[in-house]
Amino acid sequence: MGTGKTALVLGGGGAKGAYEIGVWQALNELGVDIHIVTGTSIGAVNGALVAQNDFEAAKSSWSEIKESTITELTEREELRQILERYIKEDVIRRGPVEYGLVTVEFPSFKEHCTFLADMPEGELLDYILASAACFPIIQPYEIDNKKFIDGAYFDNLPVEMALEKGAEHVIAVDLEAIGLLRKATWKDSPRLTIIASAWNLGKFWAFEPENVKRILRLGYLDTMKAFGAFSGKKYTFLRGQFAGERLEEADAAAAAFELDPAIVYSKEVLDQKLLEAVNQETSRQWKEDVKSKVKRFLTDGPGTLLEEEILAKRYVVRNGILW
Questions:
Q1: Contact 152, 178 (CB under 8 A)
Q2: From 41, 61, 197, 231, active-site residue
Q3: Greatest C-alpha distance within the chain
Q4: Beta strand spans in the chain (E)
Q5: CA distance 322 to 317
């Protein structure tokens, strides 16, 4: 990332936040040092774990959170107990990472973009729970006789907060969830890398273990691609296996046959998985559909085929998979 401070900005999005843990895992493997962390809602939870530099605690905490832990007022104490087990305020205060979050005062809707250094000691968990109070599903959280709600009501991706803290480089994880984004000050910044999924990350409350595992894996792979360790757009390929248009064709073919996006594909593995898909009954129908479209393509021109279908056809024909 060069010289200067690097910030990690984590957006809100409920269960989609597992994606951010995967991003962090990849950044660790890539040796990217994080100096500033800002977050909103679930991003504030994950951000505290990043600032604490405890990846195993992050994974373990996600295994304990379930829908009722978040949504039911009577279970809010359960969520606090989970966070108390894994988030250690004293460790974060002693550490080198500057940590901040966003919450919104209710009913005035006054924003509070607050770094840990400006929070009273012992109140970090209160601020995190306030940032994650997804009103009206979750009732406002009270701190010092004031009520607060989810920071997404002001800024669901607090990039500006990190820039104002002196970040020279910003890695922002956009979960593309409901909430306001204050893009005007940073959308064209050359110092910004945005990581977002090309896949549907599921429902806001889908904290099922298998879904969390899948989302975390996608965050990891997307980050490795963003930093050049792997290649691909929707799918992930070993570097050097495909180049240029051939990479686009491979990506389109994997999408056309609905292959697993959680796998890192070599050419050999991709071709094997495509052959397996072709032999399935559902794919035989796809094969006939594509043959029909190709016939029209040869006689009527390319307008009858979508661009991704053309790229997919090129790959499977060129590699002897479909015909």
A1: yes
A2: 41
A3: 73
A4: 6-10, 36-40, 98-106, 111-115, 141-143, 146-150, 169-173, 192-195, 230-231, 236-238, 264-265
A5: 6
Peptide bond into 107 cis (omega under 30): yes
> Residue 5, CB half-sphere, CA atoms under 13 Å: how many?
15
Cβ pair 229, 43 in contact under 8 A? no
Q: Say which of 61, 126, 131, 150 is annotated catalytic.
A: 150
133, 150 contact by CB (below 8 A): yes
pLDDT digits (tens, 9 = 90+) for 33-89: 999 999 999 999 999 999 999 999 898 888 887 655 455 544 467 788 889 999 999
Q: How far apart are CA 44 and CA 153, in angstroms?
A: 14
Examine the residue annotation and report whether 150 is marked as an active-site residue of this protein: yes
Asked if 271 and 318 count as a contact pair (C-beta separation under 8 A), the reply is no
Set out the domains of the chain in order of their start, with CATH numbers: 6-227 (3.40.1090.10), 233-319 (no CATH)
Report, in this order, helix, strand and coil percent for the chain, each rounded to 5. 50, 15, 35
Contact in structure between 151 and 131 (CB atoms under 8 Å): yes
Active site includes 90?
no
Name which of 285, 267, 268 is nearest 322 in CA terms: 285
CA neighbor of 15 nearest in space, from 66, 51, 60, 85:
66
List, for residues 261-273, the tens digit of each pLDDT value.
999 999 999 999 9
Residue of 51, 120, 127, 119 whose CA lies nearest to 86: 51
Instruction: Please check whether residue 141 is in contact with residue 148, taking contact to mean a CB–CB distance below 8 angstroms.
Output: yes
Return the structure tokens found at 215: 């989302």
